[in-house]
Amino acid sequence: MSVYSECVSTNVTILKNNLTKALDAVKHSPSVTDIFSHLDIKSCTHLEGVLELFEMSFDANRKGLTNIGYSRGDDDNSIHLWPVLAPFVEEGCELIMEHDGERETVRFSNGGFSITPDDEEEYFEEDGCSVENEHEENCEEGLGYDRAKQAPNLEDLLDQLLEDFVKGDLDSSSMKRRIIENKIAVRTDNEGCTALLLILKWISDANGEKFLSLYPKIKEIVYVLLESGVNVNQQSEDGETALYYALAGERWDIVEELVARGAILVNCKEYNLIELVAKKASIKVLDFIRAKLGVFKRNQTRCLVLACGNDRNGSDTQQRAEFVRYFIEDLGLKVNSVVKTSVRVHDIACKNITPLIAAAVAGNYYVAEYLIGAGADVNMKDASGNLALHYCAGPVSDRDSRSRLRSNNLELVKLIATKQCINLKNNQGKSPYMLALKINKPAIDHFNSLLAVAGVNLPTEINDEFSGCVKLTPREGLAYSVNYVSGKLHGEQLFFHSENNPFVAISYENGNPHGEYRVWHRSGAILLQSQFLKGKPVGEAAFYSEEGQLIKKLNFDEAGELHGRQLIMNGANEMAVDATYRHGYLHGKVFFKNTKEEKVLIDDEYAYNFPSSVPIDIEALKEGRVSGATLGAARTDLLFVVTMKGLLNFGDTLFFHKPAKLSAFIKKTQLESIH
């Protein structure tokens, strides 16, 4: 039996600077990713996405994520996350959980956490009771019982009644007597539910042969409750009534009896009724509610969209398609109707959603087939820029936990996909083709077949086995010819400003830059001349302006560390930086000038990153024996060292010597080349 859990209070906080570290820890924790592989945790790009997959609540603010905790419901799996997240939780945070009424406190300290059950004595004393005498009367006046044998609640009474009656331990008259003697008909639970509400809620989704054999007994209890004065219009805290649950279970005999006894729907929340109709996909339920209340006049489109996006426990049936047909052909709704406000279809909140997009989110083939036959436009986008095909192709967000289920529906992809849709991008710059690459090879194969028929050059799939040349020759913009061996960059890699106008030439060996690295301006003048050895820059790297003026000169040792004289010139050919390094350390003469303000910022001798003005024992520094106070006094100078190193590099725009970034660029441009 599942345990109901609820977060009573929490101040659990992960600061902003720890969010990425915490996400990486979760994604690389087998104890989480293996157990919950169905959640596709590894595709999450933010920690918020992971927490939402585990149905955890939190507040996102400038501080980071605060008040983290499992919100409420059955099967709290947050206990699997805490061991991984604990090192990133702020010291002293606490979380109080309640599991089926039993409380426990989770405390975070020293990168770990501990769980302490609440002391039973304190628990009862908080309620105003004492456990010193086990036989003391209940604090509520007039009810005396042993603390060890508390009076059963309404749900327990009803459970026992049903069990005894079904087993035959009670006959009809004894069952009626127990209902009257225990006042079962007139009691409510702590959520405002009567016994009638509870029993109808239990059977609202029940099916199967076993249930059908029990139904006559259950119905007899319902009728006795009705005869015993139960309030037929009592509402739960969620605003639902007995008639609502009878309709949810399509128990029409009970519906008729409730209506005959004065049950009404007028107090039910309209949104609850809309969700009920959408879930059941029952024309009879829809017509009953419309006849009684005339509702859905303003919300018919919302109900249609929800019906298209509801699969009733994973089933995609002709009945649902028939229900959608009834909305469009009998009630006159437009097949391309749009709900502009937010609609939650499964775990995705969408705005500007159409019936076809909703059907794609749910993976409802028969509904989508009907809609397209009725004229649904596959090119319509929601507020996030997603087509129906985006939702069929792959995960549109970290929270899209149903993407794997949809990705198995190749027939739905074939139904919706057109050559024009395949490369249309959403607001995040992702096309259906790009999304399908993550988890949906059957969709990629189908997309490629459509593109091949249309005469489109297909992107090269670069995997661990790929060997060969990958080329890009766009009508305008950057072109290239890059070489791979066994999935790794290998050989000469060439990039062009335009056809026959070289931009970059760099040699790779076994996935790392190795050999000459040259860059040219559009005019053909040299921009960069440098050398790499097994992934590291070596020797001199010289940068030039289009007029041939030296801009920057860097020197490296064989380990790729700055070594020797480093120069940076400004546009007026004035010295801005003249610094000497020894194997990665500032060591020697250092000159640093703000040429715009004509102000010299540094002009000093350095030894192993420390200026002469800071007395440092070099031997002690090498052995790690320099005091914290001394290092603290040199903090400003150390920040300058970091700043200086940030200037003495190849820059962000020249990334061709970075294998991971270059490979990502190649794959991205290959996808973008589809037209």
Automatic annotation (TrEMBL):
Q: Which UniProt keywords apply?
A: ANK repeat, Repeat
ANK-type repeats, residues: 351-383
Pfam families listed in its UniProt record: Ank_4 (PF13637)
- Which InterPro entries does the annotation name? Ankyrin_rpt, Ankyrin_rpt-contain_sf
Q: Which protein, by its recorded name, is this?
A: Ankyrin repeat domain-containing protein
Q: Which organism is it from?
A: Saccharophagus degradans
